Amino acid sequence: MTFEDLRDYIDFMSKRNKIIQIDDEVDVNLEIAEITRRATYMHLPPLLFSKIKKYENWKIITNIFYSINSIYEILGTNNLESIGENLLNNFKDMPLSTIDKIKSLPSMLKLGKITPKLDKPKFKETNVGLNDFPALKTWPKDAGRFFTYSLTITKDPETEVNNVSVYRIQIINDKEAIMHWQAFKRGSMAASKYKEKGITKVPVAIVNGVDPVIAFTAASPVPAGLDKYLFAGILRGEGVKLTELDNGILVPSTAESVIEGYVDLNDMRLEGPFGDHLGYYTPPDYYPVFKLEKVYLRDSPIFHATAVGKPPLEDAWIGKASERIFLPFAKMIIPELIDMNLPEYGLFTSIGIFSIRKNYPGQARRVMMSIWGTGQLSFLKFIIIVDSDVNVHDINQVLYAISTTVDPVRDVLIINGILNDSLDHTSANPPLGSKIGIDATRKFKEELGREWPEEVKSDEEVVKKINPIIEKIKQQYLP
């Protein structure tokens, strides 16, 4: 699907009566977040707030990713796996290893109309500060107002790959904000490369109000090394239009607002607390400070925000869509993988259920290790491996598999002192924590010590005979 910008998307949804315009005066302090959370829980369409207390020149849009159907609308398809499959089909006949194929993605994708293109900006420089942005205070004990769905854009100083990510950003004053990029996030890793080169002022742009396809890409686990603008071009079917800022950062030329500046790695300040997607306040910790140099706005700008908290909120549906889009990538890396389920109540970085085609003893543990070594799947605390005939999206089938295949001493693997999500408050010393893997597959003789018992099955002739009787009963007694 191709939207010119956020306004084009709003027009698209308005024509389908799928924008809820709220003309009552609302406050960025708690009120907008409360309305947004309730709307998301009810799967209501996006909310457009037209009267913001103390921010008369702005509108705010929230709840863009209100359900899995919202992703279908934005991407123009409900077959999300086909997106990854079509991309990887380019490599089907190439005699390359899995690693070589992944490394070849960027060069292959630079061909064609999906390549980013330079364009004149629709925004212009203006004299405003960070406090002039209608950022939200989401929960009562949050440390202040935060950008919750602004895009942080950096460039790798070695590869020049553009990274577009969503990090929360706490406003301190008109010129400074705290950048919450965790050590293993791309922005932070790029910053480490700058620091190795003796550069402590990392060029950064904070962008808000873009085509929702770009916004979705920013929050997605795009394979490492792949330029996110390129991937957004794949999803859009058309290259992203970009403008280069004075600090060398490329930003979408149709953005509603752009804040140009740098992150000062020598200036670390206490950020938080913040009520995050785990449903708890993350305690204060030290992160580097972003320092504003210039601000650009479109006329009558629209601010995009989200409200986080206990699932399922917007991040749940972004995660579920990412699960489907990137399943083909996971299958390429782990050939025996059949399907995966990252349950929305498992927070997408906590619990993962995977089905495999099992061919040899010990295979489930081998797959666990592969998953823990693969991109953002490496953050999973709980991995459950089941056989190929188990529907990973049916929790009852998964529970049955665990109940009938698992001996805890033999089939449960616990690893300590390994990387988890930094926001995980259950760990004593985050981001280090522990992980658990459960092998809920049927066991080979080498694993069990004897042959696996035979499963019960009905007699086929009896089934054929009684089927008509069952049909009569169903017609008579079932609604």
UniProtKB/TrEMBL annotation:
Residue ranges constituting the 3-octaprenyl-4-hydroxybenzoate carboxy-lyase-like C-terminal domain according to the UniProt record: 317-440
Superkingdom, taxonomy of origin: Archaea
InterPro entries attached to this UniProt entry: UbiD, UbiD-like_C, UbiD-like_N, UbiD_Rift_dom
Domain 3-octaprenyl-4-hydroxybenzoate carboxy-lyase-like Rift-related: 124-311
GO molecular function terms attached to this record: carboxy-lyase activity
GO cellular component terms listed in the entry, alphabetical order: cytoplasm
Domain 3-octaprenyl-4-hydroxybenzoate carboxy-lyase-like N-terminal: from-to ranges: 10-85
UniProt similarity note: Belongs to the UbiD family.
PANTHER family xref list: 3-OCTAPRENYL-4-HYDROXYBENZOATE CARBOXY-LYASE-RELATED, FERULIC ACID DECARBOXYLASE 1
Name assigned to this protein: Menaquinone biosynthesis decarboxylase
Organism: Acidianus manzaensis
